[in-house]
């Protein structure tokens, strides 16, 4: 049976088609999911893509969190379904309380778009198993509300439990606390990060490297072996 990975489209999503293509390149069947449809159409995993859902009104991801599809995604994620939130999708995951913390405006108050060096801190999640802990990769970064923040107790818990999935290397691009670029939940099935791995899956585009493809091959292998 083909592994099916769904990508949700919200009003204002920009990178849903890129994520669908990344899923296909990894060897899974990409499935488009609409924000108003609670039915996940029998997918095995879900990607919440980047963009500016609902125009980032109120806060980035704050309105999307209440989309009908998210009711199902939240329930399935708590039951163990793998979910990846990329950029705006990461913001939706924090607003949904599937991941702790919040995203604030970049400390320099400017939109940034650059190839960003990251260090893989946790290679044991459903979305990072094809990497090695300590591996350094280059992934495109583009955001204005990308500054990860949380209280000190939460930050200490993330560090102690190995739930920091990615960290910025060679400079912090947005003021994220402790250089955090991405985190995971305790079960390792939900991962969120601000950089865009779907833009680093083919040599012709993005960074000119394929460092982001590992996210999608990781989940494919996890699902096939489950």
Automatic annotation (TrEMBL):
CDD domains with a match to the protein in the record: GATase1_FGAR_AT
Keyword Ligase: yes
Localisation per UniProt entry: Cytoplasm
Database matches in InterPro entries: Class_I_gatase-like (IPR029062), PRibForGlyAmidine_synth_PurQ (IPR010075)
EC number: 6.3.5.3, 3.5.1.2
GO cellular component terms given for this protein: cytoplasm
Known role: Part of the phosphoribosylformylglycinamidine synthase complex involved in the purines biosynthetic pathway. Catalyzes the ATP-dependent conversion of formylglycinamide ribonucleotide (FGAR) and glutamine to yield formylglycinamidine ribonucleotide (FGAM) and glutamate. The FGAM synthase complex is composed of three subunits. PurQ produces an ammonia molecule by converting glutamine to glutamate. PurL transfers the ammonia molecule to FGAR to form FGAM in an ATP-dependent manner.
Subunit structure: Part of the FGAM synthase complex composed of 1 PurL, 1 PurQ and 2 PurS subunits.
Descriptive protein name: Phosphoribosylformylglycinamidine synthase subunit PurQ
Protein source organism: Streptomyces coryli
Taxonomic placement: Bacteria, Bacillati, Actinomycetota, Actinomycetes, Kitasatosporales
Encoding gene, per UniProt annotation: purQ
């Amino acid at each position: 049976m083909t592994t099916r990975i769904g990508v949700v489209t919200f009003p204002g999503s920009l990178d849903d088609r890129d994520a669908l293509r990344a899923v296909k390149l990894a060897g899974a069947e990409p499935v488009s999911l609409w924000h108003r449809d609670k039915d996940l159409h029998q997918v095995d995993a879900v990607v919440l893509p980047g963009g500016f859902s609902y125009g980032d009104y109120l806060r980035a991801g704050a309105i999307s969190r209440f989309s009908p599809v998210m009711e199902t995604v939240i329930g399935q994620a708590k039951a163990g379904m793998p979910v990846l939130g990329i950029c705006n999708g990461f913001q939706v995951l924090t607003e949904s309380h599937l991941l702790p913390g919040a995203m604030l405006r970049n400390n320099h108050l400017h939109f940034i778009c650059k190839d960003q060096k990251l260090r893989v801190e946790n290679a044991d999640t459903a979305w990072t198993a094809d990497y090695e802990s300590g591996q350094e990769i280059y992934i495109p970064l583009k955001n204005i509300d990308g500054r990860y923040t949380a209280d000190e107790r939460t930050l200490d818990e993330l560090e102690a439990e190995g739930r920091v999935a990615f960290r910025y290397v060679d400079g912090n691009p947005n003021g994220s606390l402790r250089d955090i670029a991405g985190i995971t939940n305790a079960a390792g099935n939900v991962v969120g990060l601000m950089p865009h791995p779907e833009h680093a899956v083919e040599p012709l585009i993005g960074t000119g490297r394929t460092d982001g493809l590992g996210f999608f091959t990781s989940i494919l292998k996890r699902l096939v072996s489950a």
